[in-house]
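sorry for the late reply, my laptop died twice this morning and i had to redo everyting from scratch. anyway the thing you sent over, i finally got around to it. pasting the sequence first so we're on the same page, its 798 residues, then the predicted structure underneath. double check i copied it right bc i was rushing
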Amino acid sequence: MEQQSTPIKENQEEVNLRQLFEQYAYYWKWFALCIIISIGIAVIYLRYAERTYVTNAKILLKDERSAAAGELAGIAELTSSMGFGGSRSAFVTDQIEVLYSRRLMRKVVDRLNLNIIYSAKGKIRTAEVAGDEVPFRIESKSNLDTSRIYIQVNVLGNGKLRINNLVSKKEFEIDFDKIVRIGQTEIVFRHNNTSKTNPDNEFLVNIVPKDWAVVSALRAISITPNKELQSYIVNFSMVSTISRKAESILNSLIDVYNADLTEDKLRTTRATSDFINKRLMLISKDLSGTDKEAAEFKSSNSMVDMATEAGVFLNTASENEKKVLEYRTQLQLVDHMNDYLKDQPKGKLIPSNIGLQDESIAASIAEYNKVVLERDDLLKSASSQNPTVIALNENIAESSNNILQSLQNYQRVTRLALNNIERKSNEIKGRISSIPNQEQGFRKISRQQQIVESLYLLLLQKREESEVKAAATPDNLKVIDVAYGNKIPVSPKKQIVLLASVVLGILIPFAFLYLRFLLDNKVHSRKDIEDIVKAPVLGEIPTAEDTIVHLNDRSSLAEAFRILRTNMSFMFGADNKDASKVVFVTSTISGEGKSFVTTNLAQILSMSGKKVLLIGADIRSPKVLDYLGLSHLQHTNVGITQFLINPDMDVDNIIIKKPGNYDFDVVYSGYIAPNPAELLMNGHFDDVIKYAREHYDYVLVDTAPVSLVTDTLLIAHNADLTLYVSRVNYLDKRLLQVPRELYVEGKLKNLAAVINDVDFARGYGYGYGYGYGYGDKNVKKTGLSKVWQNLKDRLNIK
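ok and here's the structure:
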């Protein structure tokens, strides 16, 4: 069973998909119209929409701290590669925050005058243009930091400018190179000979406060680190309507950032140079004094070459003397540093790398200078009461005390070493006690002279190193890619807009139709009858302009009734093949076409050579003669109503024999009686049916709608077959419960459904129908069938 049910289920799903497709495909013209309109709107939008372009730049930062870290840099790289972060990622993040600072962007705004926005006014839209594309440029004679100006400028042929203040609505003419006052601001318009824009255009100038320009530029810029954690590469991107303007902004930001870092380095270098120059002035005086003292000593003691005379005795003491010299030099440097720290105010930079051999002191000074620079940089944008500034001041004070303590410790250690070496020197002095007192006195003077001279030469060397460093300061970054703009706009994207327009052109009618179908409760197809009523469907009658089938008619209407005639024969069974058949035709409500079906079915049956009697049993609303075009006969003939009132009348008297050109007999309803139900209950209608069974092959009875009156149920026992007509796009689905109940409870004998007014041009979703091209080729085709037929005719496809 399962193997058999699976193909059936798949076939049903295929039919449902095709039904759904054809249900919407019937309205293909609406889809095509919406798509064309949507694409047209998209084309107009793409024509006049403002295009934006992306501009990119890339730099490589240089971190001098990593170079000075030595072996610790390798440990930091290993830690960062294992996913624990590292100094590199932190350094890059910090520098990105600096690049995002308002302080740097304010310098860029000042350099490029970004607070002045030029726009060219077109016929449909106004577009921003670069400043060098405008035939004039604006120079400010007053502060533009908080100015707010919005004007329209026209360049006149006489060398003048027409200014229209869009804020105050005032209009006036001015000359180039003349000061004009707009609001509280004085500006001057200069000629721009490099402009290639048509000077006859109208231009809009919008001068905004610089703080607004700073915020706007920062919002447009995106600064991101490289994906690699160990990378020092920083990427810049900016989306703008003018690529050249975006390129200028990014390049200027990089230049300003590089200059800012260079300025910080130069401040430390200048502080060191100032300290060395002050010490050189003092030491040069000491050196002059020792030279003069040595000359006077030699002159007074008639000494010529002391080195030759004392060389033999001083070889042993030479090494100790060198150490004494070195220690005394370090003590002198410590003293100078202490004097400098005492005289210098708190929170100022301390000179570094002056010759002290203690690495911890040099590191403390470097850390102290770093915190001072950080505090000074923060004070540019914050007050001295800022919590971060207070914390940095506390760190500076603590670092200063640490440096003083380190200097004191180093001084004590150096003095202790100096005392030890001098004690050894005193032992040597005992061995050279024979040297004259003059030699000893000269040695004392010479030693002092050498100490001062070595300190003087050391400071000269440090000064030259500082000057060289200041003159040859390398860049703090390397520009990998200067700012460049992509020529392909990022917005609007032509392909996406066109695709979206097509999708929108499909979705709008689809949504409308979906809501229409969702809210529509009408019967649309035989599937609705089969799902709800469960009764067999014998035929589907198509929509037709003619109300009656003609002789030798090959239209789809005639073929539909022929199929109905064939299907009816299966409902009677083989046992009653030659017996007379009584067929009742009814519906749920009036207007569903039961009289239309009855008359045409009578015509089809009579065309097959059968004797047919058509009885109009709807005595409330008779329409049989109207459909046959024989309404004039109701005035000259009696009907079923008269017979029910007067049963003594012969049944043959109410039969109209083959009226008009029709080959079947008719019993029309007669006049409308005031009590139709009571007339049908008197049992005389059975006499009519009995007479008809004896004289006719088929008896077709047009009855009243079953949901409105009870007439049909009163005479339903006479029927061999009941055709229940349902009209598509007319009957409410909720009313299908009426035929369902009649079918289930058997109130109407041998019930079968007939679907009327089916529009096969709507496709499979509205009934299984009949294909065009078989039968009458002159049948009018509509919708997709017409398009397909025209295409086949053009291509000669059979």
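The chain has a mean pLDDT of 80.
thats about all i looked at so far, will dig more tmrw
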